[in-house]
Specification:
Helices cover 60% and strands 2% of the residues. The chain contains 22 helices and two strands. Strands 1-2 form a two-stranded antiparallel ribbon. Helix 4 packs across helix 6, helix 7 runs antiparallel to helix 8 and helix 7 runs parallel beside helix 9. The N and C termini lie far apart (93 Å). The N terminus is likely disordered.
Length: 524
């Protein structure tokens, strides 16, 4: 980035290229290359001889360019591919390449023209990282954009280190080990201006978002989410938590999100849930706060459109919070279980039914599939008698979609080994609520009934979407649940009855195959 070039001698034997330094410095910084057209021949031009030396050779140039890398999308994409190649070929130097990505590529990417191609290219890098490191990148990225104070890695100055040794730490706050020799960067005007502009544009678009403008405004919102997902999605989610009537419009607008944006969305959801300044309960101490109810509806609707494994992270967060509450004496109830209830209700169409019809009660005399059809929320059997043919056909389509989503969410829970932990934790959580002395009796009974309904929701999700042999492998029998895991016998029998029925059926089939007589005696 030369500002000016002037002749050092009359015969142009040497030249000085003055390079623009970051705007926070009081004095300019210059790089001098004498006889620069002869440097390559003299092998003095800095070159990366291997992929391992590339970050150290690029460090001085990238520190100067910084966010201006976005002016060349082709160069930015090549640097992303080099970073992906370095992470794959040098797993031992992962911290260097993560610092390369965190300190240079992510800030420059935020300034680039929003592009799904660049977003997908960045996702190819981030998707290979473990969950903790991936969310650590998102946290630092959001910290840079929201504070406007990026910290750049620098070549070490002084000491016994090599002049080109690069200190790239995992945290932006710990990049510089020697603060005296290399002071941290202060706020950058470009980053601060970008943050303010993104906030202004997202809030302006959210005011214009409605059912009629969802396609046009949705594309514009998603374009901003491509470039600055951690910042834009956080603003959108805050609006959704405040105004639940925006949920359907926002979910429809999010049809244009990329896989990177979807992954960042679940990170933003988790960071919102873990915000210590937001209380999860209303002042009455019984019902979940309005923002938590809106967030639960949004998570369910968003997962309905984007079948992302991020839902498992949300369920895992709720599970850990329940375990922490059970292990703590006199801990308040966990109201975040509404996330599980809304997800099951929206994705699997399993909800608590206060009044069953006569046809549904008669359907209990049938088998597994008749019960499943009769008690499904979108089943044609629960439609009113005056429903039209189109309504019946639409209900049949919804039934097929709901069955697929119910199987997907069940497989997600089972594949992440969350089925048994959720069953045990929610059951013990419901039992512990009855023993609380800090709440009035009426409030305790209301919360207990609600938590027990959610236990039944989870039970029906697993029971209706897992084959008997699979259920028997995931959930043990009543004796094991009561003696090993500490469930009350009422809930232990609820969860363990399908296991007992499966082993009983297997024993009957074995006796029949062996030719032994089976005598059934009915005891009244």
């Amino acid at each position: 980035l030369p500002l000016q070039s002037q002749c050092a001698t009359e015969n142009h034997a040497a030249r000085k290229s003055y390079v623009l330094s970051p705007p926070d410095r009081d004095s300019s910084e210059a790089f001098f290359y004498e006889d620069f057209w002869l440097l390559e021949a003299a092998e003095k031009l800095p070159k990366a001889r291997s992929i391992a030396s590339l970050p150290r050779e690029l460090a001085p140039w990238l520190n100067v360019a910084f966010t201006r890398l976005h002016q060349s999308p082709a160069l930015l994409m090549r640097l992303m591919r080099l970073c992906r190649y370095g992470l794959r070929q040098q797993p031992d130097e992962e911290h260097i390449w993560l610092g390369f990505l965190r300190s240079w590529l992510l800030p420059a990417y935020s300034f680039a023209v929003p592009s799904a191609g660049l977003s997908n290219e960045l996702w190819l890098i981030i998707s290979t990282l473990p969950l903790a490191k991936r969310y650590g990148l998102y946290r630092d990225w959001h910290g840079v954009l929201s504070s406007g104070c990026p910290v750049l890695p620098r070549t070490a100055t002084g000491g016994t280190e090599e002049p080109n040794s690069l200190d790239v730490a995992m945290s932006l706050d710990d990049v510089l080990e020697d603060v005296d020799s290399a002071p941290a960067q202060s706020a950058y005007v470009e980053v601060e201006a970008l943050s303010l502009e993104v906030r202004r544009q997202v809030r302006s678009m959210m005011r214009r978002l409605s059912g009629d403008t969802v396609k046009l405004v949705g594309r514009q919102i998603c374009a901003l989410c491509h470039a600055t997902p951690t910042l834009a999605l956080k603003i959108v989610l805050d609006q959704v938590c405040s105004y639940d009537n925006l949920i359907d419009s926002v979910v429809k607008a999010f049809r244009y999100l990329t896989p990177l944006d979807v992954d960042v969305m679940f990170y933003v959801i988790l960071s919102t849930l873990d915000d210590p300044t937001s209380s999860p309960v209303k002042d009455d101490g019984i019902n979940a706060a309005h923002w938590l109810q809106s967030l639960s509806l949004f998570v369910a609707a968003f997962s309905h459109r984007h079948e992302s494994p991020g839902l498992a992270y949300v369920l895992g967060y709720v599970l850990k919070k329940i375990v922490r509450m059970v292990a703590t004496e006199d801990a308040p109830p966990v109201f975040e279980t509404t996330l599980i209830s809304e997800a099951i209700s929206r994705l699997a169409a399993i909800d608590v039914m206060a009044n069953a019809t006569d046809d549904q009660i008669l359907a209990l005399q049938g088998g597994y599939y008749l019960n499943l059809e009769a008690f499904s929320m979108v089943s044609p059997l629960v439609l009113p008698q005056e429903a039209t043919v189109d309504a019946v056909l639409a209900a049949g389509t919804d039934t097929r979609l709901t069955r697929r989503l119910a199987q997907w969410v069940t497989g997600l829970v089972v594949s992440n080994d969350q089925a048994l932990p959720l069953a045990v934790a929610m059951s013990i959580h419901a039992d512990k609520i009855l023993k609380m002395s800090s709440l009035p009796l009426s409030s305790t009974l209301i919360i207990y009934d609600r938590e027990l309904e959610r236990v039944y929701q989870l039970f029906n999700l697993l029971y209706m979407n897992l084959k008997p042999e699979r259920y028997a492998k995931v959930i043990p029998g009543p004796h094991t649940l009561a003696s090993k895991y500490g469930l009350s016998w009422a809930l232990a029998i609820l969860w363990g009855r399908p296991n007992v029925a499966f082993h009983l059926a297997q024993s009957l089939k074995q006796w029949e195959s062996d030719g032994e007589p089976i005598n059934v005696k009915i005891v009244e």
